[in-house]
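User: Hey, my collaborator sent me this sequence without any context and asked if I could get a structure. I don't really work with proteins. Can you help?
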Amino acid sequence: MIFVHTGERFKDRYYWDGEYSVDAVRRFSWTCRDFRANEWTMIDPRLMDLLFVLHWRYCKDEIRILSGYRTPQTNAQLEGAALNSQHIQAKALDIHLPNIDNDAVATDFRTIVYGGVGMYPGREFTHVDLGSLRRWVG
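Assistant: No problem. I've predicted the 3D structure and written it out in structure-token form, which is a compact way to encode the shape of the chain:
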């Protein structure tokens, strides 16, 4: 995985022997930090499970992460961001898969993700979160 705003990469084993590696989740969380404020908090590791499934189903290339954790201040400055965004709670990712139809990814994720899935046609990214069941086209 690569966080596009910093160029930082995460490639690590994060789950084994029936539990998440706290160190790996911490490194992933730092990679997905609010780069504008340079602040981070622990990302919900179930997002990493979703990325694993995504990688397994669609590609062997990198998954590009456009947004992970956001501070409330950063979130308030972004046009169109929900006031109580799952990004603030470290339970959401905006992702892009190179050379893959990201609208098809969002459509497929609607069948496997219990949470929020947003499609952004023409903008080449998909939003996934672990909040309440919601679907939208932005």
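In plain terms: The two ends are 24 Å apart (CA to CA). You can pass these tokens on to your collaborator as they are.
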